Amino acid sequence: MDLQQEQEACWKLELDKVTKLDPSKKKKKKKKKLFIREDATYDSEPDYGYAELLSRVFDMLREEEVSTERPRTVMMRRPQLLAQGTQITVCLDFAHLCTTMHRKPGHVIKFLLGQMETKGWLNKQHQLEMKGLVSSQHFQAVFQRYIDAFVICSCCKSPDTALAEDNGISTLSLWFGSIDQRTESPVNMELFNFKSHVLGGALSHVLQVSYLSVLELGTFVSLALFVLCSAVFMILTQHRALANSHGVNSEEEWEMVQRKGQQFTLNGQPFYVNGFNTYWMMTLAADNSTRGKVTDVFQQASAVGLTVGRTWAFNDGQWRALQKSPSVYDEDVFKALDFVVSEAGKYKIRLILSLVNNWNDYGGKAQYVKWGNASGLNLTSDDDFFTNPTLRDFYKSHVRTVLNRVNTFTNITYKNDPTIFAWELMNEPRCPSDPSGDKLQSWIQEMAVFVKSLDAKHMVEIGLEGFYGPSAPARTKFNPNPYAAQVGTDFIRNNQALGVDFASVHVYPDAWISPAVSDTFLEFTNSWMQAHVEDAETYLGMPVLFTEFGVSAHDPGFNTSFRDMMLNTVYKMTLNSTRKGGAGAGSLVWQVFPQGAEFMDDGYAVYLTRAHTASKIISLQSKRLAIFNSLCGWRCKWGCKKKNHTALDALLSHEDEL
């Protein structure tokens, strides 16, 4: 039974309770003479007997015309904030919010600005302008406090209230009507977090008559009506708890991960990452028949403690394209990406969103070159993507569109959404036409600053594989082959560009050294990872995240035992850095798959529901990192005396498993 059916069932149950109290179905009792107070005055109101008075209560309830087919719901859209530069933040729909609550804008403004300790005013469009940058999450939290204090009735929890002042004191009074404000895309439990099946107008009548009954009939009727109202409220409270348990909206603060020195931090604590890749989620979410696979991915990843996922926020000119042509988008596919981000948030998984591909899959830079030629340019190389001004503008337009997108499921702008861990400029950029690396370096410098100009809150990374180039000839010995130094990338130089927050590295010995599985894979992985952690600490002063690693089932000599050894090797290297509070910030396995998505498998898929050993290894790494993240400040080392050594030692005793 879904939530809608449960709510309807609850409402029908409530009507059943009302019917049982119908006096027409009770046994006749001997009439008792009513006691009337001598000093009571009722003007022209007639005197009613018990049965007549109770009948009036239910007549009033019926007159409200409450439908049992669809519960009445009190909802409000999220406040829509827009930053104007770095000095002003505007609440675009402030007037609508005040109208919905039936509150004067001046009263709301006074509370909000006082709580946020800033200055503000109404502009000519009746929008609230506030000084400084105000995050959407902070504004919503303060707005919720206003609703709790000045809108919701503290007795019956009804939002159907009016604010009245008497000698300078504001008091809430119940209305005998109901708020009937709805939006096209309502967000359940967002601000009111309250379902008003009966409490809207009908319950206020019950409360009114309950008051009259105290005067006329004594405590018995009053108590009966109070029990009825209490039953209604208890059922509604249960629905609220049920909605929260389904993850509709958690009141827990969902903060953005930041970088501090060579570590990621969250709420002042270190944030070492155990994550995963699943690149195809937007594509499958665009079809209702396969959308459930996206939910399966997040459910299974969350079950083994994975905290960061990486996926594509691009599909250019291909099947189910997000961007069909420059700046022309398929809204259904964009809604699919909205769904992916929304689902990630429900399972407390953050996302690295990559913005374009170096390769032809899903369009990539080759598709941009095709668009350029179709618009009259004479381009001869895919690497013109990095240098041609028109193609750079095409890319910038796509970045601007994605970052300013308002999620149709959460109503949160992408650039304000803490579910997004970081933006990735490109998946595995290469510019082999310029081994010097100057072309790619110029592109990185321009695009990293451009992304930061649109979104200063989120982190930015390039998407590099990690190859060393001309700026560090002594480090090229760590490259997997000589060609790697000729593809136009330069790990240290590239990551020193302004606007880059952390470095990325990929680990694919089977693609770079030899397709045949051997122990050299593990030896290379150790030296490759260690070299990049050292460089991140010595030259870059930033975290390094190993954003892809894996071994393919298509490799000659592959077996799951070797795949598990690869997992152990990467995790052990990450853990060694974690123990020292080092720059090795974590790793993301390529890639996690649910059952039923085999048709998208590139050979590297890890099916958590059937790869039991791999799942245990991944889960153990998650537990170790989670304990470290939760117990220390950002500069703390593994040997900190404040740590819970019992828990840590218990996990570290399984050294044979990592």
UniProtKB/TrEMBL annotation:
Major site of localization recorded for this protein: secreted
Report whether Secreted shows up as a keyword of the record: yes
Q: Translation initiation factor IF2/IF5 domain location, by residue? A: 70-179
Q: What is its EC number?
A: 3.2.1.78
| GO MF terms, alphabetically ordered | mannan endo-1,4-beta-mannosidase activity; translation initiation factor activity
Q: What class of enzyme is it?
A: hydrolase
Signal peptide (UniProt feature, chain positions): none
An example GO BP is:
seed germination
GO CC annotations? Answer: extracellular region; plasma membrane
Gene3D superfamilies associated with the record: 3.30.30.170, Glycosidases
* Catalytic activity, as annotated: Random hydrolysis of (1->4)-beta-D-mannosidic linkages in mannans, galactomannans and glucomannans
Q: Spell out the InterPro entries in the cross-references.
A: GH, Glyco_hydro_5, MAN-like, Transl_init_fac_IF2/IF5_dom, Transl_init_fac_IF2/IF5_N
Q: Where is the protein localized?
A: Secreted
Q: Which UniProt keywords apply?
A: Glycosidase, Hydrolase, Initiation factor, Protein biosynthesis, Secreted
Question: What does this protein's UniProt record list under function?
Answer: Component of the eIF2 complex that functions in the early steps of protein synthesis by forming a ternary complex with GTP and initiator tRNA. This complex binds to a 40S ribosomal subunit, followed by mRNA binding to form a 43S pre-initiation complex (43S PIC). Junction of the 60S ribosomal subunit to form the 80S initiation complex is preceded by hydrolysis of the GTP bound to eIF2 and release of an eIF2-GDP binary complex. In order for eIF2 to recycle and catalyze another round of initiation, the GDP bound to eIF2 must exchange with GTP by way of a reaction catalyzed by eIF2B.
Q: Which family does it belong to?
A: Belongs to the eIF-2-beta/eIF-5 family. Belongs to the glycosyl hydrolase 5 (cellulase A) family.
The annotated subunit structure for this chain is: Eukaryotic translation initiation factor 2 eIF2 is a heterotrimeric complex composed of an alpha, a beta and a gamma subunit.
Q: What is this protein called?
A: Eukaryotic translation initiation factor 2 subunit beta
Q: Which species expresses this protein natively?
A: Brassica oleracea var. oleracea
